[in-house]
């Protein structure tokens, strides 16, 4: 689907490992005072005045992404987002990242420059410093491992474990779009295989395709909640699907939950695309994954503070643990929530 | 060379990603007061009272290790060592690690249990907390990405950049053993391919084979230097070979160096094995890599404090940058040092 419009191909071997790191990271600036040493020593050094949160995620070609429709610049951007999302889910400010990359020799330098352009853009927009990483060869494909750190005051960090019965369950943005974007891209890939001259018209799907290819982590939500003077009792990011994340909150907080189907926020494009693909949109929101929205609980007293905010939707409430975790359908029947989220070890994925 | 003596094979698919993490990490204890949250939330949380150092390294099957002679428990141990070595090279105390693992479905659960047994042993012996990671499938082979963090007082952190002309160049332990251990293992692998019934006698090579398969990071050196009241002016760990690391110190500190061939510490097994393989032992020390010893510079005034210590050898001294970096051979000729260290992107590796 994506043509190689750049005829220049510089082999990685020419540069060697150190030359490659220097070349790829030469335009990254250090922005945070807390970053004392970035790339170029045995380890990076930073000095956080508050508590540090740290998270790490792998992205693997053929498992987490498909380069036949994922532009490398978007991939670099998304790889950073996936990690920052976890930092924001702790209600922390993201400050530093490391990027480790393993690539087979089939990738020319120009491809890695594209990838790092995406990483650079993400670092700039989200105000994080690239402070280290590792660059090596792989026996097949591309693998990215990112570690992100952030900083937060002790009393502001939100764990998965703080939800209480009667707390409201709130979600940012809308759900299911990234998954449906993936369905559209997969379909176009099949069409392309049959007829490589076919130019797909993705414009009706631009919102959901962008949610898949270039998601944004919700840096704004932690800032918004601070402005609204709301401290979530528990928080998690939605990477595996709403259902799986709710069950994490329930398990860690030892509470139950009632989730209301009619409240789940869906973009109109998700609804129409679900109809086109003949998929149930609630199922997509529950199990689709890769939304990178934030799911959190707040005390009922805080409801007035968030009421009517277009970024936030109350989708349910927590209950006594004995009540379990349920979806309350539009027909007002209760269905037990089960984790249908993504299991990368399933051989039929 | 290694038989599968364990007939039990539990597929990873059965457990799923979360079940797998829970299972593999259930016996890890949190030992540090600074670790506030380990595995089980969107991010780990820690609180360092001093500055934080952070380093990350990839280990990739077929590039960095060969499972035909690397037992999985040793691999887990070594993967931790590789990272802790970078923390100690900053003169910091290692405190926390994350371990991310990508494995193909060909590995049964029991293999990963072995790997984690090695990680657990390393964590215990080196007193670090496992606080997070990611576990996913790979399209081929096994990949390990570890991030290690440590803590140090601002004034104690040793960068690569602090060496001055006339500082002494000091190395811990001895060099070249890990590389020669690898040569022996590779030779035995070839013998095994021809005759699988041949039982190799590795006992004459036990020191060098152990240095390859189960290296130890030099936690003790930072402690020793503190006892001796010596603060290195610059420090680096030897992962790519002495020559490459000296050039890093020279470049970062803007100094030159004279390294004396006759001073390079070699174990007798390295010397005899080099003779057997008809390889020059100095070349092995200069370019072999994977020694995980510490290379550092000290002020001449500090010489009396380290003199005669069996763990430390003065191998040269730093010079004005205009003099360049040279090896002074036993025949008293000067040869310019060049980085012959490992380039993983070379296609003929």
Automatic annotation (TrEMBL), chains A, B:
Any idea which positions bind Mg(2+) 3?
A: 42, 86, 237
An individual GO BP term: thiamine biosynthetic process
Binding site residues for Mg(2+) 1: 56-57, 134
- The entry marks the following residues as binding ATP, namely 116, 133-134, 160, 239
Per UniProt, where does Mg(2+) 5 bind?
240
- The transmembrane residues are none
Write out the catalysed reaction.
Answer: thiamine phosphate + ATP = thiamine diphosphate + ADP
> Any idea where the PurM-like N-terminal domain is?
40-151
Q: What else is known?
A: Reaction mechanism of ThiL seems to utilize a direct, inline transfer of the gamma-phosphate of ATP to TMP rather than a phosphorylated enzyme intermediate.
Q: What does this protein do?
A: Catalyzes the ATP-dependent phosphorylation of thiamine-monophosphate (TMP) to form thiamine-pyrophosphate (TPP), the active form of vitamin B1.
Write down what this protein is called.
Thiamine-monophosphate kinase
Name of the encoding gene = thiL
